[in-house]
Amino acid sequence: MVTEGIIEGKVHLVLYRVMRELPRRLWHIFVGLSLPIAGLLVPKDIFLPLLISVTIIFLIFELVRLKFSWLNWRFLTDFRALLRERGGFHTYRQ
């Protein structure tokens, strides 16, 4: 029937979207779990300065990446699997 084909098409579309999001979700799970675990295992006087330093480095990288289109293009190309297409990917693409 026609409705079976429509339902099957919707199921395939949902599976396709889930599989496209899988690397991004795994990345967030890994990073989201590693920071609290590191915070529990590493002494506070080491963890906090390290966390602040890494945050500043990432912020500087983001500013530089958005300033230079060639670096932004390289980032978008290399990390395409972790970026959402409907998010900022098209916004910064040149």
Q: Main traits of this protein?
A:
4 helices, 94 residues, mainly alpha
Short description:
This protein is 87% helix and 0% strand.
How would you explain this protein's 3D organization?
The chain is mainly α and 94 residues long. The chain has one domain (2-92). It has 4 helices and no strands. The chain has helices spanning 2-41, 44-67, 69-78, 85-92. The longest helix is centred in the first third of the chain and has 40 residues, at 2-41. The radius of gyration is 19 Å and the shape is flat. The N and C termini lie far apart (45 Å). The mean pLDDT is 79.
Going by helix content, strand content and strand pairing, the class is mainly alpha
Number of strands: 0
| SSE order | HHHH
Assign a percent range to the helix content.
over 70%
Sequence stretches where pLDDT stays below 50 over 5 or more residues: none
DSSP strand (E) fraction? under 5%
Shape: flat
Multimeric state: single chain
**Total number of helices:** 4
| Whole-number mean pLDDT | 79
Q: Termini, distance in Å? A: 45 Å
